[in-house]
Write a structure and sequence with these properties.
single chain, eight-stranded parallel β-sheet, three-stranded parallel β-sheet, 13 helices, binds zinc ion, Polysacch_Deacetylase, hydrolase activity, acting on carbon-nitrogen (but not peptide) bonds, signal
Length: about 325
C-alpha cells in the first residue's frame, strides 16, 4: 500500500498538471488582488499582489482553457467541447479591487470571472464580521497602552452569532467601522456591480451577510441563501448560481434538496479544494490565497486528492 502511494506521489514530481488534474474542470477562488495593505483583510486573507495574480493566471492558462459561465454550464450539458480541461475563475465577497484591479487585468487577458457577493455589504452599508475582527486586531496591535482586557486571539473566535459583540469592542477601542467604510470603501458599489455586468462579468449570490452555515439552523441557512438569490435576481445579476460563504462543511442534504427546488439554480459552490461532492450540483473550488503560487497549490491539491482517493475518502459525504 505504501509502495503504491509512493509510486503515485512520484508521478506528480514530474508535474504534468494538465494530465494529472483529476477532474474535467478547475475552479479557482480568490477574494482580492492588491498591491496595497488592506487593514480589513490583514488577518483573514492572504490576498495576492498584481504580479502574483498575473503569474497565477498565466500558469493556469497553460493547463486549462478559461471559460465563461454559459460555456461552463454548456460543458456539463455536453454542448460545449473545450480544447483542454476547463477553468472557471471565481471571486468571493465583492471587494472594490475586483473592479479597479482585477477586471482590467482580466479584460486585457480575455478571461471571464464571477464575483459572488453579499447584498448586505453593497455600497459599503456594513462590513463582514471577519473584516471587523481584522480591524480590531490591528487596533490592539497598534495601541501603545497595552489595554489587554481584550486578547487578539479571542477576537477571531467570535463567530457570526455573536457578531454584535464586535461593535461593542470596537466602541471601547475607539474604532469607527462606519468611518472606515466611508474612507476605505472596501466593497463594490451598486453602480460598479452594474458596470461589471455590462463588461460581461458575472455577479452572483454568496448569502445575504456571510454567516458560517454550520452555525445556523436549516431555516436560517435557507433564509440567508434565498434572500441573497432573490436580490440578485431582482437586480438582473446572475441568479442561477450560489457560492457558500466560508465553507459548506456540515451543510446537510436536506438544505440542498430544499434549495434545488428552485429549478433555475444550476450549481452551488464550496471551497474544499479538489473534491467530489455527494451532491452532484455542489462543486468544490480551489482556494488560491494560500501564500503559494498556482503551480504549487495545484500540485499539492492534486497529490492530496490522489491520496484521499487511495483511501476512498475523496468524496464529501453529507448527512
Ligand atoms: Zn466569502
Amino acid at each position: 500500500m505504501k509502495h503504491k502511494l509512493m509510486n503515485f506521489l512520484a508521478k506528480f514530481e514530474k508535474g504534468n498538471t494538465e494530465q494529472s488534474f483529476p477532474l474535467d474542470y478547475c475552479l479557482p477562488v480568490y477574494h482580492c488582488v492588491s498591491d496595497e495593505r488592506l487593514p480589513h483583510l490583514d488577518h483573514i486573507i492572504r490576498y495576492k499582489n498584481v504580479k502574483q495574480f498575473e503569474d497565477d493566471l498565466d500558469d493556469l492558462a497553460k493547463h486549462f482553457q478559461f471559460v465563461t459561465w454559459d460555456e461552463f454550464k454548456d460543458f456539463f450539458k455536453g454542448k460545449f467541447k473545450p480544447r483542454k480541461k476547463i477553468a472557471l475563475l471565481t471571486f468571493d465577497d465583492g471587494f472594490r479591487e475586483f473592479d479597479e484591479v482585477v477586471a482590467p487585468i482580466l479584460e486585457r487577458k480575455g478571461i471571464y470571472a464571477i464575483n459572488f457577493i453579499n447584498p448586505a455589504f453593497i455600497d459599503n452599508q456594513d462590513l463582514m464580521f471577519r473584516c471587523k475582527e481584522s480591524l480590531i486586531i490591528n487596533a490592539i496591535k497598534n495601541s501603545a497602552l497595552k489595554n489587554r482586557e481584550i486578547d487578539e486571539k479571542d477576537i477571531l473566535k467570535i463567530g457570526y452569532p455573536d457578531k454584535n459583540r464586535l461593535d461593542d469592542i470596537a466602541e471601547k477601542l475607539g474604532i469607527d467601522f462606519n468611518f472606515y467604510l466611508k474612507q476605505q470603501k472596501p466593497y463594490l458599489s451598486f453602480s460598479q456591480l452594474q458596470s461589471l455586468t455590462k463588461k460581461g462579468f458575472g455577479i452572483s449570490a454568496h448569502s445575504w451577510d456571510h454567516p458560517l452555515y454550520h452555525e445556523l439552523s436549516l431555516e436560517d441557512q435557507l433564509e440567508n441563501t434565498v434572500k441573497s438569490i432573490k436580490y440578485i435576481k431582482e437586480n438582473d445579476f446572475l441568479s442561477d448560481s450560489f457560492a457558500f460563504p466560508f465553507t459548506d462543511f456540515g451543510v446537510e442534504k436536506v438544505f440542498f434538496e430544499n434549495l434545488f427546488e428552485n429549478e433555475q439554480l444550476s450549481f452551488t459552490f464550496g471551497c474544499a479544494g479538489i473534491k467530489v461532492d455527494c451532491i452532484n450540483k455542489n462543486l468544490q473550488r480551489i482556494p488560491m490565497e494560500t501564500g503559494e503560487n498556482a503551480s504549487e497549490t495545484l500540485k499539492k491539491e492534486i497529490a492530496y486528492y490522489q491520496f484521499k482517493k487511495f483511501l476512498n475518502k475523496n468524496i464529501i459525504i453529507r448527512k
